[in-house]
């Protein structure tokens, strides 16, 4: 089974960025833990701050992988292009968010990913990604 985690803008700063919202752990450390925990799957990771690069990656792997775990970060709330890419590809996408976007500003309540996502996992901290992997394994 091949699963990829795709993170959008500013998530390369996890551990340093607003730790009261996003926690103290950087994503590379967390990703290494996940890889060790699920050695029987191919788990890949991609991060970009650039909308078009995220769309390119979704198109590149979206007919090949078994699952995509997508945290499009701020683009979740703005990007019709990423939403359309999620709709265009065959691989199921689970939308994840570290924080509970619904308990934050109203502009974070809107998602262009959700209508075409297989499911949504929101607000469990980095644990959101682990829950998404577990859901693909079920
Ligand atoms: C986020 C929530 C978004 O609203 C925000 O822009 C992010 C991170 C989260 O994982 O909680 O950058 O996607």
Structural overview:
The chain is α/β, with parallel strands linked by helices. The protein has a single domain (2-137), classed as Dehydroquinase, class II (Rossmann fold, 3-Layer(aba) Sandwich). It is built from five helices and five strands. A five-stranded parallel beta sheet has the order 2-1-3-4-5, with helices on one face. The protein is globular. The mean pLDDT is 97. The structure holds 1,3,4-trihydroxy-5-OXO-cyclohexanecarboxylic acid.
Topology of helices and strands:
Layout: E1 2-7, H1 19-22, H2 27-37, E2 42-47, H3 51-61, E3 67-71, H4 80-88, E4 93-97, E5 119-122, H5 127-137
Parallel strand pairs: 1-2, 1-3, 3-4, 4-5
Helix pairs in contact: 3-4
Q: Note the quaternary state here.
A: single chain
Which ligands occur here? 1,3,4-trihydroxy-5-OXO-cyclohexanecarboxylic acid
List the strand order in the largest sheet: 2-1-3-4-5
Apparent shape:
globular
- The helix content is 25-40%
Provide the CATH superfamily: Dehydroquinase, class II
CATH class: Alpha Beta
Overall pLDDT metric: 97
Total DSSP E strands? 5
Q: Fill in the CATH topology.
A: Rossmann fold
Structural class: alpha/beta
**Shape-level CATH architecture:** 3-Layer(aba) Sandwich
Determine the N-to-C terminus distance: 12 Å
Unreliable stretches (pLDDT < 50, length at least 5) are none
Run of helices and strands = EHHEHEHEEH
Number of structural domains = 1
Compute the CA-based radius of gyration: 14 Å
Q: How many strands, which pairing sense, and closed or not: the largest β-sheet?
A: 5 strands, parallel
Distinct helical segment count: 5
Beta-strand portion reads 15-25%
């Amino acid at each position: 089974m091949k699963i990829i985690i795709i993170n959008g803008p500013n998530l390369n700063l996890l551990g340093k960025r607003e730790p009261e919202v996003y926690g103290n752990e950087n994503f590379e450390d967390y990703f290494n833990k996940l890889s060790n925990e699920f050695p029987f799957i191919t788990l890949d990771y991609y991060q970009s701050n650039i909308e078009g690069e995220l769309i390119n990656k979704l198109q590149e792997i979206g007919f090949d992988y078994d699952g995509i775990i997508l945290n499009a970060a701020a683009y979740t709330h703005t990007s019709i292009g990423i939403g359309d890419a999620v709709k265009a590809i065959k691989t199921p996408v689970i939308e994840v968010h570290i924080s509970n976007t619904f308990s934050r500003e109203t502009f974070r309540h809107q998602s262009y990913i959700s209508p075409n996502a297989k499911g949504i996992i929101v607000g469990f901290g980095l644990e959101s990604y682990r829950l998404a992997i577990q859901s693909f394994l079920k």
